[in-house]
């Protein structure tokens, strides 16, 4: 084998490696940042006509950054991501790149400086390759818009990679990069991670700075409920990235610093786990049953104590139905200028009974919620956080599905809130509303809890499936460690067929 062949073999071995492994190879001089970047750019050129995952690029700027990384490595500098190529969600400002959030009105909105989160990753040595696709206004479970077009799932291009961090998850699964930066308010990190078979972490609310995300540019206040966090092909890389993303707010840094508690346990068998596979009042889908049954089998094989909701004393588990109502209320009222309701939704709003306390009613009323009502819901949110804190005196994580179905086929019908999706149940397949796909995703969002989405293999159709681990407030390291311990025993990410590479490292 020639030297050139050995070099190509090394680059191929890094295609699906972790960011940590890529950084180690760079630090050891086994590969240069320039060569690793060119390998990434070649893969994007080869596959992205079909996937359309990375939609904003400046290859010359990326090459200049890679050359700077190589010079720093040659000087003996060592940083956690020095020379590692990454992409970030399009809604994050990257100096010199457009931030549009998929909105044609902002198609020429070039950012003057990096967002705080991007600056932190760049400061750790990361080479920004480009930005990944999103839905319009980040408000969909699919990633398509009139600026950049439609992104496809590497497991099946007839299916969506999810949203709103859909391009992010597809870029990871396709072996472009090992680390991505996304946001999550309704599962926008965790659902794409699930649809593509990668890892995603929704941090505790307020832990990661959102400054420099979205449009219009220049906003200082964070959107209520929203968080920023990492996606990766290994659980370990989630922890690496999270360490880089905390304590970024300049004003807070003058006096306050978050020091996250260590993971509660270092052995899987020590975890106390509640598993929930059926949303109250809803039938359990075959997908939900498959995911949770697979996790339960693995946990019990490892000696983990697994509990079901029916085994809990009354009042210990928060009321999930009422929590979801409050979530829909605060989510719908979290935009300063919410989109107009569709005609059918407006009719349903006008027909609501004053005493209708359902999640649907909360969603319909949310855009015009009076501040006094918002304050009541906010009090319920804070009370819920304290109730979960009491719950986690008895348990370490809650494991649930991420969604009631795997990646679905593209569906761009309008209005969005009237879309339905085929979900398989024991008694047959039926259409489920768009609004009913968010129960599991919303569960940790309202109380601001950390949640880690982790892959658990493939379903009978060969599509990736995932579960999520929800943990105590500010105990992000516990949910990431739980996912990592499972990964060490059972594996995690699987490369989709046809994308080459030698597997995860």
TrEMBL record:
Q: Which InterPro entries match?
A: Amidase_dom, AS_sf, FAAH2
Q: Name one GO molecular function term.
A: amidase activity
**Entry keyword annotation includes Hydrolase:** yes
Question: What EC number(s) does this enzyme carry?
Answer: 3.5.1.4
Q: Which GO terms describe its cellular component?
A: endomembrane system
Hydrolase as a keyword of this entry, yes or no, is yes
Give the record's keywords alphabetically: Hydrolase
Q: What class of enzyme is it?
A: hydrolase
> What residue stretch is flagged as signal peptide?
none
Residue stretches making up the Amidase domain: 35-479
Q: Which NCBIfam families match?
A: PRK06170.1
The molecule here is called Amidase
């Amino acid at each position: 084998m020639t030297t050139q062949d050995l070099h190509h073999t090394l680059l191929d071995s890094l295609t699906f490696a972790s960011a940590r492994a890529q950084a180690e190879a760079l630090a050891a001089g086994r590969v240069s940042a320039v060569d690793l970047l060119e390998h990434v750019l070649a893969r994007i050129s080869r596959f992205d006509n079909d996937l359309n995952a990375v939609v904003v690029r400046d290859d010359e700027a990326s090459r200049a950054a890679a050359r700077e990384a190589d010079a720093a490595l040659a000087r003996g500098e060592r940083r956690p991501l020095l020379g590692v190529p990454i992409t970030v969600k399009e809604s994050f400002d990257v100096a010199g790149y457009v931030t549009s959030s998929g909105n044609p009105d902002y198609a020429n909105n070039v950012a003057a400086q990096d967002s705080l989160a991007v600056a932190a990753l760049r400061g750790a040595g990361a080479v920004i390759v480009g930005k990944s696709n999103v839905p319009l206004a980040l408000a969909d479970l699919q990633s398509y818009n009139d600026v950049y077009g439609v992104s496809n799932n590497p497991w099946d291009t007839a299916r969506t990679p999810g949203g709103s961090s859909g391009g992010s998850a597809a870029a990871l699964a396709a072996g472009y990069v090992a680390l991505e930066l996304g946001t999550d308010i309704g599962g926008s990190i965790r659902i794409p991670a699930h649809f593509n078979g990668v890892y995603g972490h929704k941090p505790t609310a307020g832990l990661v700075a959102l400054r420099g995300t979205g449009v219009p540019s220049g906003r200082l206040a964070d959107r209520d409920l929203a968080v920023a966090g990492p996606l990766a092909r290994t659980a370990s890389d989630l922890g690496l990235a999270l360490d880089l993303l905390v304590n970024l707010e300049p004003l807070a840094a003058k006096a306050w610093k978050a020091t996250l508690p260590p993971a509660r346990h270092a052995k899987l068998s020590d975890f106390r786990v509640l598993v929930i596979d059926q949303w109250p009042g809803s039938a359990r889908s075959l997908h939900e049953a498959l995911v949770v049954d697979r996790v339960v089998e693995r946990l019990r094989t490892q000696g983990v104590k697994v509990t079901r909701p029916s085994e809990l004393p009354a009042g210990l588990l928060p009321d999930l139905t009422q929590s979801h109502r409050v979530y829909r209320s605060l989510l719908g009222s979290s935009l300063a200028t919410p989109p107009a309701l569709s005609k059918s939704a407006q009719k349903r709003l006008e027909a609501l009974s004053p005493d209708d306390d359902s999640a649907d009613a909360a969603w319909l009323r949310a855009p015009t919620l009076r501040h006094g009502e918002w304050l009541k819901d906010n009090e319920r949110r804070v009370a819920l956080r304290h109730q979960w804190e009491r719950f986690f005196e008895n348990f370490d994580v809650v494991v649930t599905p991420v969604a009631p179905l795997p990646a679905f086929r593209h569906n761009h019908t309008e209005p969005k809130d009237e879309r339905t999706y085929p979900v398989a149940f024991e008694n047959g397949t039926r259409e489920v509303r768009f609004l009913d796909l968010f129960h599991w995703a919303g569960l940790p969002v309202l109380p601001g809890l950390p949640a880690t989405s982790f892959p658990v293999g493939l379903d009978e159709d060969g599509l990736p499936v995932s579960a999520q681990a929800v943990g105590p407030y500010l105990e992000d390291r516990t949910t990431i460690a739980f996912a990592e311990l499972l990964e060490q025993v059972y594996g995690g990410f699987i490369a989709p067929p046809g994308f080459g590479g030698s597997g995860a490292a």
